[in-house]
Amino acid sequence: MFATRCAVRRLPQRAARRWAHTPATLKFNSVTEQDIAHFQKILPAASIISTLSPVSSPASELSIFNDDWMNKYHGKSTTVLRPKSTKEVSEIVKYCNERGIAIVPQGGNTGLVGGSVPLKDELILSLGNMTKIRSFDPVSGIIVADAGCILEAMSEYLAPHDYIMPLDLGAKGSCQIGGNVSTNAGGLRLLRYGNLHGSVLGLEVVLPDGTVLDQLSTLRKDNTGYDLKQLFIGAEGTLGIVTGVSILAAPAPQASSNVMLALPKYDNVLPLFREVKRQLSEILSAFEFIDRKSYELAVKHGQGRALNDEDVEGAECFVLVETSGGKREHDEEKLNGLLESLLEADEPLINTGVLSQSPAQFSQLWAIREGITEAVSKEGKAYKYDISIPVASFKEVVDKTRDHLKSKGLLHDDAVKHVVGYGHVGDGNLHLNVVAAAYTPEIEAALEPFVYELVASYKGSISAEHGIGAMKTHALQYSKSTTSIDLMKKIKALFDPKGIMNPGKVLE
Ligand code: FAD
Ligand code: 2HG
Ligand code: ZN
């Protein structure tokens, strides 16, 4: 490995808000044995999991659908339906609408805001059985797939055709393309390929009354009035169930490389970003930030391979830079030139750079960054704030949050163990994770609305990429005006007048 030494938004009224996570009372019908008998007419036995008779599955079979990835949010659904076709989804939804049964659409259940599990006993409609690639055009790179296709499986399908998916996330082995679209997932390639509002070309959606909206276009350009598909991208299952996705894949880069840069101080991140962009220009494909504690947690919990001690010594934080381009020699020359100039500068912005020399080392460096979420969840219970703020303020926000928790007497091993920051610097997206011994009302009360007010004071967004889910419905006004929220409510009422689609998520 290469290693060388070297105008504030007006804050909403606090008094009127509720801050504990207490979902509004939902008034929907519970699934009954008669409903199960009806679902048996639509679906084969293997597609119904229910504790109700005559199916009578053990409750343990339901828990992976009722509990979220963090084990923070817990639903009480009695029934999970796993349709295999759009027609089956449509029949289920039509019936639930008539009966007043609420539905939670569920993909890979890797969401981090409590959006994918019920608040009460809503029916869970899992897309996990809809896994067909419907078509792929190797000339345009457009792939059309069932919503339940796992992101990684789609990448594997595309690899022999020399294409890649335009998005990549640590949860790729479990998350589904329908879930990605429904959360407008960002991830590690957004800097290069932009977000899903650009790369998704068409959607097939089952609307809350069971009607199938077929907008599964494979056209790059289509200016025929309102672009309705955009409404479902990031709707978190509140407007309908995405059953099919048409998406533009990207040509696979012919050469990729990465380097982990160790920085003596956070203040160097921004000048470094400018310099890296200037020198690497079109081959820069990722610029990811990892603070020291996040790095230590990743290594402690076996994510990637630890850097040598001398590379870590004196580092306040790290930046992982990835390049992707068309010609290895050209890209290597640029990257090596960058590293040399960084290390030889009069006042170097970095201490060291650890450059991957093989595909295995490339993956190991990425594993450190991608593994932080997993590491944090092994260390304790994480309160996750996924925020957009000016990059210059990343460290300040982490420090202010830590100081605030300290002032509340909560910064000790039995309450909050660590406050860490990492994320997508290139996109202005910080992941602020507060790692606690347990989820407690006391810690939550110390964090909220504190964090949201802090974000608003930087004119930031309370959700850069994970969404609102059940976690932030009561905080939406920190990032959206009353006019916007009112319009969102009208759109929701237009699509879903009975409110059966993922109630209590996104909007209160
Ligand atoms: P789920 O968690 O099942 O559902 C998420 C939301 O979408 C829910 O509201 C659900 O109701 C709705 N939904 C799911 N499928 C459908 C459908 N077919 N139709 C309508 N609504 C639907 N997120 C990022 O943005 N960037 C990251 O880098 C990132 N990294 C992650 C790393 C790890 C280790 C983990 C655990 C999570 C990460 N996430 C990230 C969060 C999560 O993976 C994404 O939000 C992902 O897009 C969710 O997909 P899913 O299939 O698991 O959806
Ligand atoms: C990432 O960028 C994901 O790694 C997850 O968005 C962030 O766990 C988190 O807070
Ligand atoms: Zn992220």
From TrEMBL:
Membrane-spanning parts: none
Pfam family, one: FAD_binding_4
Cellular compartments per GO CC: mitochondrion
Gene3D superfamilies: 3.30.465.10, 3.30.70.2190, 3.30.70.2740, Uridine Diphospho-n-acetylenolpyruvylglucosamine Reductase, domain 2 (3.30.43.10), Vanillyl-alcohol Oxidase, Chain A, domain 4 (1.10.45.10)
Catalytic activity: (R)-lactate + 2 Fe(III)-[cytochrome c] = 2 Fe(II)-[cytochrome c] + pyruvate + 2 H(+)
All residue ranges annotated as the FAD-binding PCMH-type domain in the record: 73-252
SUPFAM superfamilies per the UniProt record, alphabetical: FAD-binding/transporter-associated domain-like, FAD-linked oxidases, C-terminal domain
Obligatory cofactor(s): FAD
Keywords from the named record: FAD, Flavoprotein, Oxidoreductase
Database matches in InterPro entries: FAD-bd_oxidored_4_C, FAD-bd_PCMH, FAD-bd_PCMH-like_sf, FAD-bd_PCMH_sub1, FAD-bd_PCMH_sub2, FAD-linked_Oxase-like_C, FAD-oxidored/transferase_4, Oxid_FAD_bind_N
GO molecular function: D-lactate dehydrogenase (cytochrome) activity; FAD binding
Coiled-coil segments: none
Family: Belongs to the FAD-binding oxidoreductase/transferase type 4 family.
Protein name: FAD-binding oxidoreductase
Source organism (scientific name): Phanerochaete sordida
